[in-house]
Please model this.
Amino acid sequence: MSLSSQNALLPLCQLPAGALGLVIELQGEGTFRQRVRELGFGESAEVKKISGRSTILCQVNGTRIALSHEAARRILVRPQFSPLAQG
Amino acid sequence: MSLPAHVKPPTRAPIYAFVGNPNCGKSTLFNALTGLKQKVGNYPGVTVERKVGTAYSQHGQPVTVIDLPGAYSLAARSPDEAVTRDVLLGRRTGDTQMPDRIVCIVDGSNLERNLYLVHQILDLGRPVILVVNMMDLVESAGLKIRIDRLEKELGIPVIPAQASSGKGHIELKLAMSRTDLPLPKHRWDVPAAISRSVAELQASLQDNDGKPPLIARAEALLLLTDQDPVRVAGSQPLSERTTGILDHWKRQWQEEGTDWSGTLVAARYDAIGQLVQETVDTSAHLTDQNTSDKIDAVVTHGLWGWVTLGAIMTALFLSIFTLAEHPMNWIDAGTVALADGVKELMTPGDLRDLITDGVIAGVGGVIIFLPQILILFFFIGLLESTGYMARAAFIMDRLMGRVGLNGKSFIPLLSSYACAIPGIMATRTIEDPKDRLVTILVAPFMSCSARLPVYLLMIAALLPPGEGSLLTRVGLMVLMYTLGTIGAFAFAWLFKRTLLRGEPPLMIMELPPYRVPRVKDVVLQMAERAGVFLRRAGTIILAISIVLWGLTTYPKSGYDISPGEQVAQSYAGQAGKLIEPVIKPLGFNWEIGIGLISSFAAREVFVSATSVVFNVEEDEEDTAPLLQALRQATWPDGRPLFTPLVCFTLMIFYVFAMQCVSTLAVVKRETNSWRWPLFQVGYQTGFAWLICLIIYQTGTALGF
Model:
């Protein structure tokens, strides 16, 4: 991961597997944004992408959460440096 | 401490509600406390039904406990969550009394997320007991929760527990036995941007909807996050005035660009974050891969995930069809023996025939599927309680996404292979109402076990012994199951593009940590579901069996006619003749028509109905005489009736047609109108007719 991409926002679906991201912005309908926030997945939550290209698996706050691709596309994250890129 | 009037210790024993996120161990705790048999599972939202039990306080006083469906928030997104919200807010006074006290169960290993719901509940201003469950997971993750600190901050009893081992049960019972449960210290500031609207809504809820002050405040806060309120039948609607105020504020915020719901959720999480920081010591937190993560690496893997799912599905279907065989034969033999016994005891006559041919044969014909249904429920229970079911939904999500559904529709469709009724009931956890309806509409296409006897009979008629290899027979059977599955997916695709157009579903689903299932819980759950099935067999199916018996028995004429002739001139026979013009283009005559009509009781009744129509001495142990009769059956002009083409067409008809009254009754209950079940009869049976017409006419033209 190059330094220049550090500050760019990525949709969660494009975050590489094993990488950490900080949730910056939620898009989509109000009901969807609200539920994502209620699940502790809102702005400033730290998320670790585990796997997935179509259906995405990630870890937030110690919980495993599966998201459809369409849902993950609406969650914009800022990639973070991770001491363990693959874990 | 003096309590407000609505929480004064009442003269009757208090009613408790158990509330918590899905997978927090709430159901296990409820079971342990009440001893009531109910299901325990891992799949988000498995506790669908409203459960009420009686626990006993330390002084032996009975305490009523309502186990509410698991919810992430009081802003409901699915029917189960709507029930939880409405019971807590006292909106369901018609069926459930508003609980006086609330036991919140949280998963200690994920305290922050779990406390969100608790934070909403503390707004209700009723005594709350907090149970911090899964203390074993908390310890193994290296976390330390300062229970005393949490107790002090919230001002309510906080009980550490481990529901699966029984730790904390006594403490909870003791707390529940207290008459002087304190009200929570719940101070948090509603963000300034929305505080005026909350005050206005609260006032209106008190004046126009007759809510007590604290409930009104909680409901006012909730209305702001309940953007697309899921209304469920039996809950009271809001007054016009309150709706007006709400609309007014929403318009104003929209113009100003205020994200009111985001502000409110963020304010709650801020308060929770502070609380967690003060009460949870994360200094020794382990972030290593735990066992669950290691299993997930295989089970949710792009390739191995499919291999695992495929292996489990194969094992499931093999068990359903092999293990169930002997018990099914026993039930069959038992039914015949019972009918014979009644025949010997009673004098011949209509009453005896009603009992043997109507009640015993009709209900017995359905109960015969109990072993298969038990095996299916056992597997589903096992998969749910280990946590695998959510992974299966995850794996299937991509495939389901192609037709516009999401992974959550997979479990209902899977259950429908045994019987569409549990399948349709399992759709209650699907959040999107359109997705839920589409799943309900297509679920009956999955070949249920009631079609199996029809397929078996037709394959036997199609390929007489000695003709056709075993492979052809199995191939035909697999073809029927495949066609039904393709039909379900194709119509789901069609409905999502036409009738129930909707945004691509945004699935967001928790994958609970894997747990070793407790066989006792799985068996209890299986028994409970089987009980539901049996109750239905005892009511709806019993009634239908009696009606059908009447239709095939009356009107009576003469004494010296054969049973076949009697059926021919009965109401059912007349109906068969009435529909003959419609089914003749498919190659079916009126005798088959009687079979089709009787199938409305349950599809497998086709087999017994044709036995009666073709004058076969009933002998369920052996279908050879029936096959003989089928082969000899002819049209009036002497052409054979059951040509291979007709047998094949008939099987196809059974794949697609909607012929099950019990399913229709369940669809009516779940969708709250007759519109959708009637639509199902129309579109499924219409499609079946059309495709059979094409097959039969093409086949005839090609000389089959």
About this structure: The longest strand of chain A covers residues 20-26. The longest helix of chain A spans residues 30-41. Chain A touches chain B through 35 residues (CB under 8 Å). Confidence is low (pLDDT under 50) at residues 1-5 of chain A.
